[in-house]
Amino acid sequence: MAREQLKTLTEQMYYILLTLTENQHGYGIMQEVDRRTDGRVKIGAGTLYSLLSRFEEEDIIVQVAEEDRRKIYTLTEKGLNILKDEHKRLKQLVSDGNDILEGSEDK
Which domain holds residue 82? Predict the structure, then answer.
């Protein structure tokens, strides 16, 4: 997964990285994403573990421990930068939408 491909993250990718601002294992990631989004964003086990593997290969996350066969991950500096870039991009989308939609209410 080249850096170019990560200019825009899927919702699942974004929430996985957001969750990994703290150390977490796979099942914990699924639970935290469910909690943060009130169940709106679902991440299946296959999708999660496929993304974790890809993120690890690209040095976006790193395994920091293993407890009871659970691998615990966290973001690398590269991963944090990707997350911050995506957060900035999403804020700009909302700002652009606000400019148009809130402006149209005045008309």
Answer: 8-99
